[in-house]
Amino acid sequence: MNLGVMDLGIPRSPQSDDISDGISDGISDESSGVISFEGLETLLGASGAVLADRADYSRGSEGRRLKAALVLLTVWLGVVALYLAPWGSRLVVALAGLLGIQTLRLMRAQPEPAPLALVGSPDRWPTVALMVAAKDEEGVIERLVHDLCEVDYPSDRCEVWIIDDNSQDRTPEILRQLQAQYSQLRVLRRPAGAAGGKSGAINQAVVRTRAEFIAVFDADAQIPKDLLRRSLPYFEDPFVGGLQVRKITANPDENFLTQGQNTEMMLDAYFQQQRTALGGVGELRGNGQFLRRKALESCGGFNEETITDDLDLTLRLNLDQWDVRFSLYPGVFEEAVTRPLSLWHQRNRWAEGGYQRYLDYWRLIADNRMGTRRTLDLLAFLTIQYLLPIAIVPDLLMALLTQRVPMLAPMGLFSIGLPLWASWCGIRRSHLAQFGKPAPRGRALWDTALSMVYLLHWTIVMPSVTARMAVVPKRLKWVKTVHHGG
Predict the structure, then answer these.
(1) What angle do CA 41, 42, 43 make, to 5 degrees?
(2) Does residue 480 form part of some domain?
(3) Strand (E) or helix (H) holding 108
(4) Are 81 and 143 in the same domain?
(5) How many other CB atoms are there within 10 angstroms of residue 460's CB atom?
(6) Against a cut of 0.90, is the pTM above it?
(7) How many domains does the chain have?
């Protein structure tokens, strides 16, 4: 298969052979290193209709705390009403039945086989820019740059961008040394106080390249050499706007937390494959995500007003009718956090960002902008991931007050049964993809049991995060996870 530019539905332009052309005058302030978001939209060539949609997205971020409070109040009052109404239990059973049907459809879905790796003349392969936002990453940045610059892909069709977000350690020095070694390495340094966090950093690099595809990685990523040749063929389908490759824990045997995160990534891989096979919502995960430039342009770039840019962009892509696919192999390795406090902060951020996007874009979701299949898929996971955990507290309180079995027990079974099944299937499937054979049955059973114990932390994270969002205003800031390398 020859995956050329025209194969991807992207007309070849005179600039396509030079992916590092400059940008329009008056947009970039090189002295300050700051690019306004309005300038970004102009550079990306957004049309009037696209800009109108971006305005809808922007308005959605207003009043997040009020919306979170209204959802919390509605869920609590709804649970109380179920106990007081004579038909409450029947309604719960009916809702559980609908959720059960969707769950069975999910379990029966058959993922499509992965496309063949890129072959043919390399001068017809698409141009790609590999991007990493880094802050104080002296422990991992050298290995990362070596991985990115030595992938099995023509260097004249692959740029590597490291956006140094005002690092105060040896990161800038290491990058200067590496620039002398790799001609495709570009380094963009941001000043202190630069806005937008990771999203702002990536946005500033995107406008400086004309690459047809953008790939984003975390600073601790470990990239296999054949990643690009195996990942880019997914974009032969012109409706595919994004691709997430499987994330793999680089330090799974360090302690219980890293073992749990390792199995959790396998569970997530299973859900990703099943959801996309069913025509549902594919999701980006930040590290190891590929984007069609045209799709990123249609969404107005990365949202700088969110704490989880990957989850926010996921919804924007789906709302704009782009498909987001998932690749099980090869995967990208990353460090798992090793301490309980670090895990707590990380999962709070993930939970808040994931919930925040529903609050921001609920009108567009309600308008069925994504289509019925994706909307139903999204609502099912919204219910299991967020609404049921919110309802746990009032349900238990009402059960104690009325001396009854918890009303939501039938629906609560999905919060246990679905992760249990996904862990078992995900562990065996991921092991097969990585090692060529399924995980031994005994090991898979042990890892599944470990996964279920580990996942209990979400029963605390989800209710606490949704309650806090209804009371405490959020300050957007760069969230730094310490990477040690090794």
Answers:
(1) 90
(2) no
(3) helix 88-108
(4) no
(5) 12
(6) no
(7) 2
